[in-house]
From TrEMBL, chains A, B:
E.C. number(s) listed in UniProt: 3.5.4.16
Superkingdom of the organism of origin: Eukaryota
Residues passing through the membrane, by range: none
The protein's name in its UniProt record: GTP cyclohydrolase 1
One GO BP annotation of this record: tetrahydrobiopterin biosynthetic process
Length: 448, 448
């Protein structure tokens, strides 16, 4: 596979090498990241030469090393525009805010290395008889997002980059950020309503937006009406780092995998980051602890213990076969092609005259976690769940998995609204389309 | 500006040249498209050396010549997956549908060359012990979308491309398409509720989806529940070409600009298209007719005639100054950087003791059209509207323009949900943030 297959990027790295050139794969930083990812895969008990995993290290390196130069982007797209002056009171002058709203971005959390999603609103007040091409506001935001960040730093970086690139009267950025909130292996089995996302809103301003009391902010928020944002619910600069990343609230301690921590540290260094920076000190440890949730071996053992439990409550007086369902079981998993989370809901249909008992319902959720908490692809996961529940539920099984894939958002194609549904069927569902259709109608509409 | 500034693509053209390479700009097809775009700009009465327009021909060429090879994309991403067989009745086998939903795409209408937006749902049933990387379904759809298309042909192309790339048991595609429905210059002034979008839903299937009665379609639509799609509302294969593109319902006849039509024909030929294909025969004529709506000269004259009309109804007994507003005026315009439409709503605030009269309201809408129907940037448009209405409405003016830019969707950054708001202020609004805030609260939430 050529370098182009993985993404349609062709970007200039800071050292001038183009991603997409064959040279990229030989760069020492690329090789260092690939080597480190191999250590992590081995630490998870995986075979790095298995076909699904063979290119995973290169995919990770490509995604992480995306960089571009702000000045090159902005300088080529400053257009002269008469009537745009520094003075107030002129149409298009100060007060003449230009705001691009609802730009979808993603970034990488510097505390745990997981991607987080961003709804970005970026605006500026032109000056010096120049406006900048609208798409460039989004491009500059994107450059800073594709680094290890925390939300406030990201907002500050975008703001600073645009301020120095465009030299406007003022520039302002508001980011609505959502960080995936994975349960750890233990709590996944205990909490049925685990919160999926950690959210905060941050802002940053320079020039006429530097002061939070500036009337320009009133205009900015006025144009963001109906988005549930105001000066009041913007996180203050000092409080946000501590509470934002869910991994920060987990208990501190060694991961027990020093080799994997060393490998992650090598990745972070290959990105040009200083591991002594206080925000990064515990990052390799936190990432490895999170990753080890997906180690395969220990789960299979637990699963064997459940396989003989009675799942159903026999003895309804009116014994009659129906299509029955357990819907909205939580799913957390890790895409083996990209080492990125996918998460969503699992729905299980079966044909039986008996109701499932409460222990049975909890067992089905456990089975989903058993198959979810490892390196997976959604197609295999769906099949494995069907095959595991089949002997417990009578052999007529339909499993539907609906999931959001972080790799569909943060790698290459960046299709933010997309999600994936898969079906596996066994027994009578295989040959009865109306039974399948009836079960599909039992599934609530998908939203996370 | 280097080739990289315009887009983060690096894609291989069908002749093997990479977009993003310096060589691209010297390709004869690129030069032919650039020359043709210059003829169009001159036909619109524009100076092709004006800074805002200087790179427009190259931008158009880059966007139109995007191409990539399906086989290269898919072949590198077929992963072995045990349990995926041709036979029915196996989990992950036939019935084991994999469906990626809600992929945002855009394509170009072969009848009029304008971009249309697509919500794409693409699925397949794996076979031969192989699954394809999920992102590849989206990538293949994207390749065929970035050509001159009609919706049914696009669905058929994606389906055929995946069928031959993956060799699955079956493959199916459903596309929900929206085509911008520009009013022509005359009707813009007459119709206040012009329909903004022309919509259709199309589908295509091969293998086990080839027959419309196939039970596999039941599964497919079952997984698209709550999206208002069913077999019944999918347009039949023969009816769709005639009624889909709004330009097809306009009257046939010469555009009066043979040089511009020849230039557009050259663009279509440079894309490797056969102009004798019946769908393309009238395309240059339709595009030129549409484009000439934006010729600048004739509009300025009309505007002068209105400038002295009385706008307001004097004589309220309780004469008191208020912030008053005219909101949701329709906007249609053409981005001069990309030759692509932008469209949305204009809101005008003013401070006065008098109500505006019905003729005045209609005049404001006309002023918006006067400034909209030409090559524009949103910032300038906002300022021009403010300056034009200022003498008519007493000098205290705030104009807010909210617009969707086709170039933000179909060029480079592809930020589908984004939209842009601009403000221009004159008179007392310049120094009174609370007046601005009050007017902003009068504007309904933006949705098109």
């Amino acid at each position: 596979m050529g370098a182009l297959d993985e993404g349609h990027y062709c970007v200039v790295l800071e050292n001038g090498v183009k991603l997409g050139d064959d040279g990229f794969e030989q760069e020492p930083e690329t090789v260092a990241i690939e080597d480190a990812v191999k250590v992590l895969l081995q630490g998870l008990g995986e075979d790095v030469n298995r076909e699904g995993l063979r290119k995973t290290p290169l995919r990770v390196a490509k995604a992480l090393r995306y960089k571009q130069n702000v000045r090159d982007i902005v300088q080529g797209a400053l257009f002269p525009e008469v009537g745009v002056e520094n003075g107030t009171g002129h149409a298009g002058g100060a007060g003449g805010l230009v705001l691009v709203r609802d730009i979808d971005l993603f970034s990488y959390c510097e505390s745990c290395l997981l991607p987080f999603q961003v709804k970005c609103h970026v605006g500026y007040i032109p000056s010096g008889q120049r406006v900048v091409g609208l798409s460039k506001l989004s491009r500059v935001a994107d450059i800073f997002a594709k680094r290890l960040q925390d939300p406030q730093q990201l907002a500050d970086d975008i703001c600073f980059g645009l301020h120095h690139g465009i030299n406007p009267t003022g520039v302002a950025v508001v980011l609505q950020c959502s960080h995936i909130h994975f349960p750890n292996l233990q709590s996944a089995f205990l909490e049925s309503n685990h919160k999926r996302l950690s959210k905060i809103t941050v802002g940053s301003g320079l020039g006429t937006f530097e002061n939070h009391d500036s009337p320009n902010w009133l205009d900015f928020f006025g144009l963001l009406r109906c988005r549930d944002i105001s000066l009041d619910n913007i996180r203050s600069r000092n409080s946000c780092k501590d509470s934002w990343c869910p991994s920060r609230s987990q208990k501190v301690g060694p991961s027990g995998n020093p080799d994997m921590e060393t490998a992650v540290a090598a990745i972070v260094r290959s990105l040009g980051q200083d591991l002594c920076r206080k925000e990064l000190v515990g990052t390799p440890n936190r990432f490895v602890k999170w990753l080890m949730n997906f180690k395969d071996a220990k789960l299979e053992m637990k699963l064997n213990g459940f396989a003989t439990m009675p799942l159903k409550t026999v003895g309804l007086t009116n014994y009659k076969e129906h299509i029955r369902s357990e819907v909205n079981l939580s799913l957390w998993s890790l895409c083996e092609h990209h080492l990125l989370p996918f998460y969503g809901l699992v729905h299980i249909g079966y044909i039986s005259g008996e109701e499932i008992n409460p222990v049975g319902k909890s067992l089905l959720q456990s089975i989903v976690h058993f198959h979810g908490f490892k390196l997976q692809v959604q197609e295999r996961l769906t099949r494995q769940i069907a095959e595991t529940v089949s002997p417990l539920l009578g052999g007529d099984i339909m499993v539907v998995v609906e999931a959001n894939h972080t790799c569909m958002i943060s790698r290459g194609i960046e299709k933010f609204g997309s999600n994936t549904a898969t079906i596996a069927v066994l027994g009578r569902f295989s040959n009865d389309p109306l039974a399948r259709s009836k079960f599909l109608q039992m599934i609530p509409s998908y939203s996370l």
